[in-house]
Amino acid sequence: MKRQVRGSGSMAIANTSARKETTEDDTEGAGDQAQSPQLRRELGRADLRAVPEARRALRELLRQWGKPGRSDIAELLTSELVTNALVHTDHAAVLTATVGPRGLHVEVRDFVGRRPRVSAPVADDGTNGRGLVLVDSLADAWGVRAHGVGKAVWFDLDAEAA
Hints:
Helices cover 28% and strands 28% of the residues. By secondary structure, the protein is an alpha+beta fold. A seven-stranded antiparallel β-sheet has the order 1-2-6-7-5-4-3. Helix 2 (50-61) runs antiparallel to helix 3 (70-88) and helix 3 packs antiparallel against helix 4 (131-138). It is globular.
C-alpha cells in the first residue's frame, strides 16, 4: 500500500511503499546499481523529441523485465517525468533508469529548484496537469529529491508486482 510522506530534509514530496527511501547520502544498494542494467540520457533544453527517444531507450532496457504491460507503465511514467522537466524548466535534464533485483528506479534530474506539485487537472485544460497524478496513481513509490542545483523527480516499480 502506498503512503504519503512529508517531512524535512532532502525529501519534499514522496509517495512510497514499505521499502526504505533513499537519499543522496545513502550507500546501501550502490553495489546493486553498479551491476544492474542502466540507462542514462542527457536531455537537451526544451527538446521534446527526447520524450519518444526516452521511451524507446527505456523499452530496450526493460525488454527482459516484468510482465507484459509493466514496461508500458514504466514508459508512460518516464515520458511524463521527461516532459515535465523539459516543459516546466528552461534547462536541460538527465534521465537515469536502473533495473535491479528490487525493481525499476527511474529519475529525471533537472537544474531548477522549484518543486513540482500534484494538483487536480482542470477539465477544460486538455491534457495538461495530469503527469504527476499518473505517477502518483501508477508508481509503487515516487518522490522529489533536492540536489545542490535543482532536483530529481523519481519513481519505482517493484519487481514483485511485475
